[in-house]
Design goal:
The complex is a heterotrimer of chains A (504), B (326) and C (351). Chain A has 504 residues and is an alpha/beta fold. Chain A has helices at residues 46-53, 76-81, 99-104, 117-130, 146-159, 176-191, 203-209, 232-240, 244-249, 299-306, 329-334, 344-348, 355-367, 375-388, 405-417, 435-452, 463-469, 492-499, and strands at residues 8-17, 20-30, 35-39, 61-66, 69-71, 84-87, 110-111, 114-115, 164-168, 195-199, 212-217, 220-226, 263-272, 276-284, 288-292, 314-319, 322-324, 337-340, 423-427, 455-459, 472-477, 480-486. Chain A contains 18 helices and 22 strands. In chain C, strands 1-2 form a two-stranded antiparallel sheet. The chains are: A alpha/beta (504), B mainly alpha (326), C mainly alpha (351). Chains in contact: A-B, A-C, B-C.
Chain lengths: 504, 326, 351
């Protein structure tokens, strides 16, 4: 594989944000004509690395070489000019413009002082022809599926005469056929000597298409290896940061609590097309159910159905033996179901309201707008939870947006605890949170289940965390439930084997 | 065939043009003396200033912005022109000056919008206040224009097809042609559309978003300045209360002309028909005799509503039609 | 001691601080430049003076600003309030109608078509219907608020003219004048109306959870939906409320000038109202709001107007000042400006 000078070389890249070291001494090499997978869990530093490479961020230190020569990349515009283009998951093109124009905008051919639309059309057709894509290039981009849009984005990159194309989670919203089509295009580009960086969470895809894989974790380079010589299980352990040896040594906790408890909620054949395949699920009182799987495996999609955020197109939900319809979060809240969403900032926090108001909001909603909690009662409740789960805030009136990530998460948690839910769903509650707070939250979850008899669904990308606190674990992969583990089966090794599709 | 006509592409514009043609024909049948070239030309003569400013507005709305200050700019420019002519300045100096003043206002507002990332509506709302107030600082009274050169330009008529048109009409049609060229055949114009479609993407695609946005407001300012000149030629006076509410007529023209208020889609050519339809409504009300002038506002409001809902419906149709065409 | 300091700090950070400061500044200015600005006289058992005048004339704006505050708190805007003022005035005036007749005995008698309560109620109901229209467009059709309310802003004045048949309707029926000209306990009735609206809305916002829900929606409507707040319903309500406020203002104005002028009643009112809300420290991005500081903001706007009039400057200068003030406030409040300021401060610290 590429013994010659790499086309891109990044050496000892450092990048810090206030309070976070996003990249530490990261080296990265990319050879012409290779497809290079970039892997790592959330917050590993993949996107920061890409943003440094494409000039969105400036590295604090370190050097980038293009064809062996050191270069400073000033802006995305500059990156494009020197041949580095990015195709993002949420296709960054203009949906209102035609396919042809999206390929050419910014570098339109000019003839007689006017844009040469004929030439644009012809050349757009030629380049898409290469991908075996015969579509009407005069149609608006938004008319076509995400798969086509991604091809168009790649075509745009080619027209800019890209030497390096970065694909950021391109297959996240594609089905199998579309993915295969994209892979064909990628192989063709590779044969033309173009280097591709491919970021994805889908293991199957990585093994199908990449030549080499670079793994990042917590801003550090873990390894770069040839894909064929890296077993799946090893890749996963490198991503989540536990050695196989260590995993084998890990002891199992007793996982028998809650076996005979009453069933609270039952899902039968629940499914939502394109989001999650049909699954059965039983949630018992006083039990923590872990959902394990890589990002994009369908964990969030599964719980969205249980919280009325998304409508199931098949199957049914049974609560306390009665079939129920959950059409909106309000319905779910009325059944005492609570959800702490994964994207805390967008869907969880009400940033401009105080800690007190954030904590009492859900309780107030269950009471309706007319029976307002008195100021004294609000303070009492807020203070109770601040003390109970140890929220670090100067006072109850502090705006939530001024708290640290961990404490913000605790506020969202406190909001739901205040309504004393029967079912508490936690989607990545410990993501981006310091170790101390993490332990607090884990402990709290266990207490809630065993002490209060609450049923908890716990989603986490950290398998270790899932194994530590769950009595049962549902494993998801590629938007489907693939296994349900109990007792001694709940260990990291087993879960990783399952995610890897039973292959070692 | 029917599919092609009903295809969503340009649907809104097709409806507008059809609406105009059909209404004009129906009115011609109902009202004797309605159908004449001169009556058709009058639509242009009486609305040329609206057309000029609406073309600038089209660009602003295409980027997803809005400019509420255009009526005030027109009033201010009319005031400056009338005042300077009264002071004995040459008309050929005063006229370009008027246009430049409009451009300056536009540029300043554009810079504030872009540099401080403030919503365009609030900046231009403030501009609307400020600029109208400024024109009263020159004089509270209306100043009539008696300058001979200016009057000659205003009264010059170009005979055509048995009727005649004014200089303003030529001016507005030149602006229209320029606007169409800018929007559809230059990189600037295409960047305007890209910004309206998805500003963040446009930035990531390496387009000069910030510069284009400031230029768009400047262009609109220039158009309003020119519209101020046209308005002065039409009214032969300068007055702080001139062109009150014209910003609404201008926005309505753009929307009725098929441009999406949220930006990114539309045609400069369509704006012409937006203006003509409003002109037609006024003419009809005049011809009808028993209908009062306020019906114009109600009709324009209804049209505005219908077209905004139409835009919603059309864009919904498009999103449900996503297919993987191979 | 500590609690006093704490209270002061709390006051410094409250929304009412800046507009109050502006108001005090204006008052000091007026104290020196306008004779007898602070004088309040009692004539025929009624209070007179500049201060009373500001409160009285500012009443319509204060009421509209209250409604506008709630709309803006949900991250919306209502450009149609000026038009609704005209519509409400037109409805009331045409229902009151009335004629002046002189009896054979030489006595002047005023006749009315309907009673005052009927006319007032009708105006409020009509306004509420238009408010529902706005609310429907914004919450159900998801049309951006600027655009949705623009429609009524354009067409609304036409509707008002339609009702008055293009005429300025003069009102002769005296009981109607109480609303805008009457005095109660020596104080103009309009001031009582403002106080009543303020009290009702204040109670509704602070004693029920409505205010909290509105702030929650304005701050983050996605997260609010996740909590189970019915954001559509609440948005719908605030537009109705804004229209009703505009209608009350319209009633005061028509009563005050004894006529309904569809062309000029409430002209530019939407701009003044937005200015008042922004001046009151409320963010156009929605979220936390204070109706009291909006009302103070409205008082600042009205004091400005009165000052300009009293100082004998061309009243149109008002427009320049208002426009300028809005621009400055908006720039000062922009995130970019704050960032740059922070950078400057940090640099200063390092030196």
């Amino acid at each position: 594989m590429a013994a010659a000078e790499p086309i891109i070389k990044m050496a000892k890249i450092e990048k810090s944000f206030p309070g976070v070291k996003a990249l530490q001494q990261v080296d990265f090499e990319l050879a012409a004509g290779e497809i290079h997978g970039l892997m790592g869990e959330n917050g590993a530093g993949k996107s920061t690395l890409i943003k440094v490479l494409t000039g969105v961020y400036k590295a604090d230190s370190g050097q980038i070489f293009l064809d062996g020569r050191p270069i400073r990349i000033k802006s995305p515009e500059h990156a494009q000019k020197i041949g580095i283009s990015t195709v993002y998951q949420e296709v960054n093109l203009c949906p209102n413009l035609s396919v042809a124009e999206n390929i050419f905008i910014g570098r339109e051919p000019i003839k007689n002082g006017r844009i040469d639309w004929k030439k644009i059309k012809n050349e757009a057709e030629t380049v898409l022809d290469k991908f075996d894509l015969k579509i009407d290039v005069d149609r608006k981009l938004s008319f076509y599926s995400v798969a086509v849009q991604q091809m168009v984005a790649i075509a745009r990159a080619l027209i800019i005469s890209a030497k390096v194309i970065i694909l950021d989670e391109p297959t996240a919203s594609l089905d199998t056929d579309e993915t295969n089509k994209l892979f064909e295009v990628m192989r063709q580009l590779k044969s033309e000597g173009i280097a591709i960086i491919y970021i994805t969470h889908f293991l199957n895809n990585v093994y199908e298409i990449t030549d080499r894989i670079t793994i990042l974790r917590n801003g550090e380079l873990i390894d770069t290896c040839l894909t064929e010589s890296l077993p799946r299980i090893e890749l996963i352990s490198k991503m989540i940061g536990k050695d196989l040896e260590q995993i084998k040594e890990m002891e199992n906790y007793s996982k028998n609590i809650g076996e005979n408890n009453k069933v609270l909620l039952k899902a039968e054949g629940l499914a939502s097309k394109g989001n999650i395949e049909a699954f059965d699920l039983e949630l018992k009182e006083g039990e923590v159910l872990g959902l394990a799987g890589l990002l994009g495996a369908g964990r969030t999609e599964m719980v969205e159905l249980l919280f009325g955020l998304n409508k199931a197109d098949q199957g049914r939900i049974i609560i306390d033996g009665k079939e129920v319809k959950l059409n909106s979060p309000k319905d779910a809240v009325d059944y005492k179901i609570a959800l702490c969403p994964e994207n805390r900032k967008e869907a969880g926090l009400i940033g401009n309201l105080s800690v007190r108001e954030n904590i009492i909001l859900a309780l107030q909603v269950t009471r309706g707008w007319f029976r307002k909690l008195s100021q004294a009662r609000q303070l009492e409740i807020a203070q109770k939870y601040i003390d109970l789960i140890n929220i670090k805030t100067p006072d109850t009136e502090q705006l939530v947006k001024n708290l640290s990530g961990g404490n913000q998460q605790k506020v969202v948690l406190a909001r739901w605890l205040a309504i004393n839910p029967d079912l508490l769903i936690l989607d990545e509650p410990t993501k981006g949170i310091d170790i101390g707070t993490k332990a607090d939250i884990q402990k709290l979850v266990l207490e809630l289940a065993s002490g209060e008899g609450m049923s908890v669904v716990f989603i986490s990308s950290e398998i270790e965390e899932v194994t530590r606190i769950s009595q049962r674990v549902v494993v998801l992969c590629d938007r489907a439930k693939i296994a349900e583990l109990t007792g001694s089966e709940i260990n990291q090794k087993e879960i990783m084997y399952r995610i890897a599709g039973g292959e070692a | 065939m029917i599919n092609k006509i009903l295809s969503t592409k340009n649907l809104s514009l097709k409806i507008t043009i059809t609406l105009f043609v059909v209404s004009f024909l129906i009115c011609s049948l109902i009202y004797p003396g309605f159908f004449s070239w001169q009556n058709f030309f009058n639509l242009f003569i009486d609305n040329s200033f609206l057309l000029i400013t609406a073309i600038g507005m089209t660009f602003v709305i295409l980027t997803g912005g809005i400019d509420l200050s255009v009526g005030s700019v027109i009033a201010f420019v009319s005031m400056v022109i009338a005042f300077l002519l009264q002071q004995g300045l040459n008309a050929f100096i005063v006229i370009p000056l008027g246009v430049m003043i409009g451009g300056c206002f536009g540029a300043i507002m554009g810079l504030i919008i872009q540099k401080f990332k403030v919503q365009p509506f609030i900046v231009t709302l403030a501009g609307m206040f400020l600029i109208r107030g400024l024109s009263f600082l020159i004089s509270v009274e209306s100043i009539s224009i008696k300058d001979p050169i200016f009057n000659r330009i205003a009264n010059y008529h170009i005979p055509i097809a048995g009727g005649a048109i004014s200089v303003n009409v030529v001016l507005s049609l030149v602006v229209l042609a320029l606007g169409m060229y800018l929007a559809h055949f230059t990189k600037f114009g295409r960047t305007v559309y890209a910004i309206g479609g998805d500003e963040e993407s446009a930035q990531l695609m390496g387009l000069k978003v910030g510069r284009t946005k400031v230029l768009v407001y400047t262009l609109n300012g220039l158009c309003s300045g020119l519209a101020g000149v046209a308005f002065s030629l039409y009214m032969l006076s300068g007055y702080g209360l001139h062109a009150e509410g014209l910003e609404m007529d201008s926005i309505a023209s753009v929307v009725i002309g098929g441009t999406l208020l949220t930006g990114g889609s539309g045609f400069v050519f369509g704006t012409l028909f937006g203006v003509l339809i409003q002109g037609l409504i006024q003419t009809v009300i005049m011809f009808q005799g028993t209908l009062s002038s306020w019906w114009t506002k109600i009709f324009v409001g209804i049209l505005l509503f219908v077209f905004i809902v139409l835009q919603k419906v059309i864009s919904n149709m498009k999103t449900t039609k996503n297919e993987f065409n191979n | 001691m500590d609690s006093v300091k704490h209270k002061l700090i709390k006051f410094r950070n409250s929304k009412a601080f800046t507009p109050l400061l502006a108001l005090i500044f204006l008052f000091i200015f007026n104290f020196f430049y306008i004779d007898g600005f602070f004088q309040i006289e009692i004539k025929d058992g009624r209070l007179f003076g500049y201060l009373i005048d500001i409160l009285n004339r500012g009443a319509p704006l204060m009421i509209i600003a209250i409604g506008m505050t709630l709309v803006i708190a949900t991250e919306g805007i209502d450009l149609s309030v000026g038009a609704v003022v005209a519509i409400a005035g037109a409805v009331a005036a045409s229902l009151i109608g009335g004629e002046m007749q002189i009896t054979p005995a030489g006595e002047i008698v005023y006749e009315t078509v309907t009673t005052v309560p009927v006319a007032v109620l009708a105006a409020l109901v009509v306004a509420a219907v238009f408010g529902m229209w706005n609310g429907f467009l914004v919450s159900s059709l998801k049309i951006p608020a600027i655009v949705a309310t623009l429609i009524l802003m354009v067409a609304g004045r036409g509707v008002a003219q339609l009702i008055t048949k293009g005429q300025i309707i003069t009102i002769y029926y005296e009981p109607y004048f109480v609303i805008g000209q009457g005095y109660l306990l020596g104080i103009p009735v309009a001031i009582f109306i403002v106080a009543a609206v303020l009290l009702i809305v204040g109670l509704l916002m602070r004693k029920t959870a409505l205010g909290l829900f509105i702030e929650s929606i304005g701050s983050n409507d996605v997260a609010s939906r996740y909590i189970g707040i019915k954001e559509k319903q609440i948005k719908f309500i605030v537009y109705i409320f804004s229209a009703i406020c505009a209608a009350i203002a319209g009633l005061i104005i028509t009563s005050n000038v004894k006529a309904a002028d569809a062309n000029n009643a409430g002209l530019w009112m939407e701009l003044d109202a937005i200015l008042s809300v922004v001046m009151g420290g409320n963010s156009l991005q929605g979220g936390k709001f204070s109706i009291v500081s909006s009302v103070i903001g409205a008082l600042v706007v009205q004091t400005l107007t009165t000052t300009v009039y009293a100082a004998g400057i061309t009243p149109e200068v008002n427009l320049v000042i208002k426009g300028f003030v809005v621009l400055i406030i908006v720039i000062l409040k922009s995130d970019i400006f704050k960032e740059k300021l922070n950078l400057l401060v940090q640099r200063g610290d390092r030196v």
